[in-house]
Amino acid sequence: MANTRSRVWSVAGLLAAAALSSGVLTAGAATAAPPIVGGEPAKIAEHPWVVYLTDTQGNQFCGGTVAKANKVITAAHCVSGDKPEAVQVVAGRESKQSNDGTVAKVTNIWVHPQYQDANSGSDVAVLTLGQDLPQQPLAIASKDDAPLYEAGKQASVLGWGATAEGGEASENLQKAEVPLTSDADCQKAYPQYKADAMVCAGLPQGGVDSCQGDSGGPLVVENKLVGIVSTGNGCARPNAPGIYTRVAAYHDDVQQQLDS
């Protein structure tokens, strides 16, 4: 898909996130930034199922969703090629500066077997944890949930990613409200858009979107996981909605992993 990029941190982005979390600002860096593009701070108590992924050094690079006590759904491009011991899941922590919640080890990584890259579809993975989490899981959309994907439906996207395109990560959980986009409009923005594998969300004028570091995080409609932050053309640009993995399309494969 031309001119798109996945919403996972690059090495440079991870270094910037690490500098920010340690309180070190590079020359010329802003001391404050607005919430996740067009969003606002969110309470983890109201969204207990949203988690973030870190490397073994504690650097956050993606998000995820608790779908079962010991299972987390994320994007394939976040963890493809990684060994389980290289990834940790942080649950119940609203601020990355705190020690709240649980840091869980990952014992297995399942990446959808048809996954190639974020622009080709099948951008979904399931992590198995070494312990059960106390957080309430979020239900996942199935093929019976077609009404949840109607254009114009209001959806919530959550994460700790960049607060602006090319910007710094958020220290606190952020939430943005975005309407789902029609398949036709998403096809215009992204010629290789696949309606059976993806769903788009965003405002025509831009200004509200997920961004780098939010990859793998949840897109929620009516208390169900309908999408996984996947890719897009920059962040919050006009006529360039965010692209999300269409969870309902992969329900059976994901459910098999949740039941295993």
From TrEMBL:
Family of the protein in this entry: Belongs to the peptidase S1 family.
Protein name: Serine protease
Residues in Peptidase S1 domain copies: 36-259
UniProt key word Cytoplasm: no
InterPro entries listed in its UniProt record: Peptidase_S1, Peptidase_S1_PA, Peptidase_S1_PA_chymotrypsin, Peptidase_S1A, Trypsin_dom, TRYPSIN_HIS, TRYPSIN_SER
Superkingdom, taxonomy of origin: Bacteria
Any GO BP: proteolysis
Pfam family, one: Trypsin
